[in-house]
Structure formats: structure tokens, C-alpha cells
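call fold(seq) -> C-alpha cells
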Amino acid sequence: MIDKELVKSRFSKCISTYNNNAEIQKRISRRLSKLIRKTTKQNYKNIFEIGCGTGFLTNELLKFIEPNNYYLNDLVEGMKTELDKIISKKHTKNYTFLWGDAETINFPDDIDLLVSSSTFQWFNDFDTFLTKANCHLKQDGIIACSMFGVNNFKEIRTIMNKGLTYPNFSDLVNKINNKYSVISTYQEEYILYFNSPIDVLKHIKYTGVNGTNSQKWNKKDLIEFERLYTKNFMESNGKFSLTYHPIYIIARKRKNWLFEPFYVAYA
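ret:
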């Protein structure tokens, strides 16, 4: 089970450093926003965003959607200050911040679009969440998300033999397709390069994505980490790689749970 209090603590501590270090998360939000605009082409009135963070995806969606109600959720209460800055510059003034764990809080009803970027990998029971979300979506409502696949942070997991368990792409698509009609999927990889293994650790710390690691590092641990990272992942130019593997899925609530045929479009 993922320790949500530890996850909350890690992200709370990186609010001031997140925007300047989470370039990949920003790219993922832009990609997801473009896929929503290209694939669904609907006029969304009630949007519910889960794990909004400092507002990367929020900012992108409000460039082309003017919802009547925008519900924004995050595990960290302090994110509201960052969201206020974004909302104040947009047409949408009617937004509600829902603080708490999205697996346990009450959802708003009549949702046209449920979105989430780089969050669902922190859930303990994704199946139950999908059922819960279905109950609060309008007929033909859309769920659009990005989360990470099996190659995400493969360098860290190889060296430390710990971390989140990421889903296989086809398994994830099938899981969502069991409850929704999947209409678009996409996956890609980004590789960041750093000057040292310590810089890799700093990047992880400054973006909060070490949310499951409670290890207290000593000098010996750092030396061993540097040795193994250099041995396994130093490039010919002396740089050190770190892989991100985002998966994007857009699905529609089924009109008829029992009889509507499954459909998967692999982008």
C-alpha cells in the first residue's frame, strides 16, 4: 500500500521547486490537453481534475475550455495558492478546490470531463476508482488521463530495486476498457540527462516524485548509488539518463454497460 501521508509530505515540500524542475510533467500536460481537444471536441461545462498540483494541466485546458464549474483536487492543501494565480488570469472564476485523497473524497456529480495528469500511479485501488468515477460522470462523459508505464524511472528501480509498480500499456488499456469505451491511446518516452547521479536525485526530490521512498541516506548510500548509476547508466558523453514513460488514455462512459461493444483506437 502506498503511504499517502508520505506522498503528501514529499509534494508539500517541493511546491516552491516544482515548476522549475517538472518540465516533463509540463510536457505531459500539454500532450494530454491536445489529445482531449483533438479527440473529443465537446463543450465541457463541469470539469473535475484530480491531482492538479501547481496547475500545469489546468492552465492548458483553460486555453480552450470555459467551463461553468471547474473542480480541482489535490492531496496537498498548499496547491490552492498556485491554482489561485492561474484562475485569476482566466475567464473561469467559478472553481472549487477539493482538498484530499481522491480515492476517499466525495466527487462532484454531473461531470462532463474527468481529467488527471501524472497522478493515478499513486492510487492503491485503481479499479475501485474507475467504478466510482463512472457513477459521477454524465452520460457520454469523458475520462482523460496520463499515468506512467513500465519503463518509468527504470534506472532508479534497477539500482534500488524499489519504487512504484507501473502498469503494462495493454493491461492498462484493457482495465479501463472493461468499464468505459476507450477512444484514444498513446504512449511515449522522454529521457532526461544529468551531469551526475546526485543531480538525478536532486531532480527527483525537487519534483516530489520520491513519494514512496522513506529511506534516510547516509554518505555510504550516496557513494554506492553513484557507483551503480555510473556503471549502468552513464552515457558516452558522460551524462546520466533518467527515463519517463507516460501513457495517455481517453475513454467515454458507455451508454449501455452490457451491450455497447468495446473499441480501442491506438494513436
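The radius of gyration is 19 Å.
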